[in-house]
Amino acid sequence: MKALHPLQASVPRAVFLAFVMVIAPFAVLAGATTTTLTATPNPAYAGQSVALRATVTGTSPTGTVTFKDGTTSLGTATLSSGVATLNKSFTATGNRNLTATYGGNAGNSASTSAVVILTVNPKNNTTAILATNPKPSFAGQSVTMTATVTGASPTGTVTFKNGTTTLGTATLSGGVATRAQTFSTAGTASLTAVYGGDTANNTSTSAVVSQTINAKASTTTSLAASPNPTYANQPVTLTATISSSTATGTVTFKDGTTTLGTATASGGVATLSKSFTATGARSLTAVYAGDAGNLSSTSAVTSLTVNAQVNTTTELGSSNLSPTIGQSFDLVATVYGTEPTGTVTFKEGATVLGTAPVSWGQAILPVSFTTAGTHTLTATYGGDVVNKTSTSPSYGQYVSGVASQTVVTTSGADAMVGIPFALTATVTGSNPTGSVSFEDQSRVLGSANLSGGVATLNALFAAAGVRHVVARYSGDGQNQPRETLINSPHPARHMHA
Q1: Which of 183, 214, 245 is the last residue of a domain?
Q2: Separation of alpha carbons 456 and 411, rounded Å
Q3: CATH no. for residue 275?
């Protein structure tokens, strides 16, 4: 016999049964939920990834959401903060009836979203066109491959191929992708451009483009130097001639292993002007670098002889040994050398008077001077490609002043002893300055400065008699000195007591 529950021992059976019914377990109902579904993008393209997003509202719902296309399950995702997502692509076009079913949990009931219709459109067809430039090309020459893709604003990449060999990939920009490619061997390349497609556009492959790759042509290069022989510091024209008249690119000119310079070939010819400071023999070559269609080549050695410049001497002279102020005459420089050309510069000290060309060994410069006296002059020959420079010894060129005239007048016919007597000297010339000295035979009466060409002295005579008065003009930088007797019908003056 089973033992009685302690309560059964003290409580009547009916009461005990009622008590048991009161404390029996009871059911707690789960809370209601709602599920909302979105599909992005909508519409979409076949094969394009679509984000399915289910949002479940309830009492902190957890668990999973099952996404369906009609009755077909697309997949399941776990809720996180009330949201579950699934990325899905659709290969078949048309409308899709999508739903999201929340499975519920202990506190939340299951729920299913309303149907979301997703439209799946077919991708756009595309066309890829391939072009190459240059065509044909040469081995080692860069060829630009350009793929043009038409469609619905296509993006993505294009893969360039030679037969089944991938040459490289380029990104579309504005529907165009380019790639530079070189082909090392001659022959024919079968090129295609394969567009990889994108979310809205199908893939496409261009037609085969046949690219002919020719072998580069052999070349020879010859070098000429002119003049040859030459002189130190004389410009020499180096001319490289390439056997192909269509040759382009560069030519490097060398003296032994030393690079003299580089020039661009045009019509198969490149030139460089060069001078050499050191004398002796030079071993010159021209190295053609080649271009897209021509191989490189190096000329034979051209021997260039560089001679030393010839020493020269320069002498300076004048066509007039004693010109006057303002008078034009010639300075003549004679240059001795080897058929000298060029110019001679004439100077007074550091001041340049002028420059004249050398012709038949002489340079002539017309000059004039505004001041009297000796002018110290030099002539410097500038040299030429054959002859060195030289400077003449200093040359003293004397220039005399302008001949002056002096006229002396008095204040009266006769002078009186002890009474001032005006003696006036008028000097004509080239704006004469300086002073005039008045003398009575060997006795100096006095001197007066010129003003406007006139000098006046009030002279005193101590004794009566005949006086021989002389006016002596001292001269200046532009006027010669002058001595004149007093201006009178008679060469003497009577002095009355």
Answers
A1: 214
A2: 10
A3: 2.60.40.10
Do 39 and 111 sit in the same domain of this protein? Answer: yes
- What's the structural domain count of the chain? 5
- Whether residue 369 is found in the same domain as residue 412: no
Joined tokens for residue 349: 């000290």
pLDDT of residue 16: 43
User: Same domain for 423 and 491?
Assistant: yes
Of the given ranges (61-65, 112-116, 285-289, 446-450), which has the lowest mean pLDDT?
Answer: 446-450
SS3 13: helix
* pLDDT at 25 > cutoff 70: no
Q: CB under 8 Å to 415, separation ≥6 — which residues?
A: 421, 459, 461, 467, 493, 494, 495, 496
Chain mean pLDDT for the chain: 88
Specify the higher pLDDT residue, 344 or 490: 344
Query: With 0-12 CB in 10 A as exposed, 13-18 as middle and 19+ as buried, what is 21?
Result: exposed
- 446 and 394 in a common domain: no
What does the pLDDT average to over 71-78? Answer: 96
Question: 137 and 112 in one domain?
Answer: no
Exposure letters 219-235 (e unless 16+ CB within 10 A, then b): bebebebeeeebbbebe
- Residue 20 located in a structural domain: no
Contact 401, 412 (CB under 8 A): no
Task: Tell me the pLDDT tens digit for each residue of 124-181.
Answer: 999 999 999 999 999 989 999 999 999 999 999 999 999 999 999 999 999 999 999 9
Q: Domain boundary at 307, 336, 353, which?
A: 307
Q: Is the per-residue pLDDT at 39 higher than 80? A: yes
**Contact partners, residue 172, CB within 8 Å, separation at least 6:** 149, 154, 155, 156, 157, 158, 195
* pLDDT over 70, % of the chain: 89
**Residue 415 has what pLDDT?**
74
* Tokens representing residue 6 in the block: 């302690």
Within a domain: residue 2? no
Q: Do 337 and 419 fall into the same domain?
A: no
pLDDT bin (cut points 50, 70, 90) of residue 19 is very low
The closest alpha carbon to 35, from 107, 119, 109, belongs to: 109
The encoded tokens of residue 22 equal 């009161």
pLDDT band per the 50, 70, 90 thresholds, residue 408: low
Range of the domain at 285: 221-307
CB atoms within 10 A of CB 177: 25
Least confident of 220-234, 378-392, 481-495: 481-495
The partner residues of 324 in beta bridges, in order of sequence, read 400
Would 23 be classed as within a structural domain?
Answer: no
H/E run at residue 218: none
pLDDT score for 4: 47
Contacts of 236 (CB under 8 A, 6+ apart): 225, 226, 227, 228, 230, 273, 274, 275, 276, 304
Whether residue 12 lies inside any domain: the answer is no
